[in-house]
Design goal:
The chain is mostly helical. The protein is built from three helices and no strands. Helix 1 runs antiparallel to helix 2.
């Protein structure tokens, strides 16, 4: 995983939040809750996942610009970053 400890912690927090939201959506469907409520929560899960992905790409971009990686590996190329970014679109 690219990024410093702080960036990784932020991504993990967002993913844990999305995990909890997804569990809530599953529970809502099992309980037969209103479609509007389910879709609203599902959209929140989607946004949380998108933000986690964008944070990962942003960290990779920062490492690519500075040439420094936290684990000593080569930074991502511009083409690799573009491919990752477009995967989130």
């Amino acid at each position: 995983m690219v990024g410093d400890e702080e960036s990784i912690a932020l991504v993990l927090n967002r993913l844990r939040r999305a995990h909890g939201q997804l569990a809530a959506v599953i529970g809502m469907i099992e309980q037969g809750r209103d479609c509007k409520d389910v879709i609203t929560q599902l959209a929140a899960v989607s946004r949380a996942l998108d933000r986690a992905g964008f944070k990962i790409v942003a960290t990779g971009l920062r490492e690519c610009l500075t040439g420094e990686t936290s684990d000593g590996r080569e930074p991502l190329t511009e083409a690799e970053l573009e491919k990752l970014f477009l995967a989130l679109a």
